[in-house]
Amino acid sequence: MKMDLLDLKPYGQLGIIALESCKDIGNKINEHIVAKMKYEMSRILREEEIKEESYIIPIDEIRFANGEGKVKIEDTVRGKDIYILCDVSNYSCTYELFGFQNRKGPDEHFQDIKRVLSAIGGKARRITVVMPLLYAARQHRRKGRESLDCAIALQELERLGVEEILTFDVHDPTIQNAIPLISFENLYPTYEIVKTFIKEEKNLLINKTKMLVISPDTGAMDRAIYYSSVLGLDVGLFYKRRDHSIIVKGKNPIVQHEYIGRSIEGKNVLIVDDMIASGESVFDIALELKRRKAEHIYVASTFAFFTEGIDKFQKFYEEGIIKKVYSTNMNYIPKEIKDAEWFYEVDMSEFIAKIIYNLNHDKSISPLLDATNGIKHLLSQNVL
């Protein structure tokens, strides 16, 4: 079918506002979209007629000496289809506060999103917030007399004119019930992680007799079942038995991990979870798996924070307990972790670029959300 300019007509002129916390992945996303647009235009225009352009809208994030801040947008946003990118977990962003270097926390990153919305001032045609790690998602429901941070934050974005929110692997997707009148897309990095895993572990035999997918707790079971179904593997579960009589660092400490599933002996294992915080759950489960004579242990996670450093991960790698950790580049990862032998960063910029491109051109994103066919095709391409 012949393509014409109508096929390339966007909902509105694309504009990407990448906050300081998302500069690196924001630039990569922009490059992918520029390349995509150049390719599409080359099908209907001569090369000399194609304009090279960037969709990044420059902004200035200003901080005063007392910690107050403001955002200044350096280019027009009138009538544009705006995508605001922010990594609320990026602790590398700093500013000077009363002469001290202060690191931005999630609250300050979220405040910067609201500053951008305020600076836009209703002039954009549509506003979408791309927040890979959903702000305050771990405080998604009320137990007793406590705050409901995530729900309040989502409602704030709605009141400030946001029409769509894109996020990844939400702790509890039902949080979208707080904003039923605007679009909320909970995306998953499954295809990109599995693609990278298969590419890197070329000699790994992925079949039921040699490999198993493990869920580290009951909350991650749906995720583990999905991985196991697309990879054609069995699934196992560890149940976290907690001491509910005490609270340590806001959580009930884990007393023991109980395993439910088939024999692990002699099998390779893929542990899948939404995030690695301190990593204690991964360590406990890896030791339990080794005690049950597992062969190689791999970890796949959407977000890796390493809140208590990487010394223990390094130790487990050197002792042959953990083979490799796969995680995305949707949250800040220091160079020392990126360079570690046991860590592999999964690039999500092309996937996010495809989502933004489709939305900007009023195309369905459903084909991008179902990783099943893509993964099965990948597996068929490998001699497994």
Question: SSE layout and pairings?
Answer:
Blueprint: E1 13-18, H1 23-42, E2 59-63, E3 69-73, E4 80-85, E5 94-97, E6 100-103, H2 106-120, E7 126-130, H3 149-159, E8 164-168, E9 183-187, H4 190-200, E10 211-215, H5 221-231, E11 234-242, E12 254-260, E13 268-276, H6 280-291, E14 297-304, H7 311-318, E15 324-328, H8 335-338, E16 343-346, H9 349-360, H10 366-369, H11 372-381
Parallel strand pairs: 1-4, 4-7, 7-8, 8-9, 10-11, 10-13, 13-14, 14-15, 15-16
Antiparallel strand pairs: 2-3, 5-6, 11-12
Helix pairs in contact: 1-9, 4-11
**Strand order of the biggest β-sheet:** 12-11-10-13-14-15-16
Quick one: biggest sheet? 7 strands, mixed
Distance between the termini: 38 Å
The secondary structure category is alpha/beta
Number of domains: 2
The low-pLDDT segments are none
The helix fraction, in percent, is: 25-40%
What proportion strand? 15-25%
Q: List SSEs in N-to-C order.
A: EHEEEEEHEHEEHEHEEEHEHEHEHHH
The CATH architecture of the largest domain would be 3-Layer(aba) Sandwich
User: What's the overall average pLDDT, rounded?
Assistant: 89
- CATH topology of the largest domain, by name, is Rossmann fold
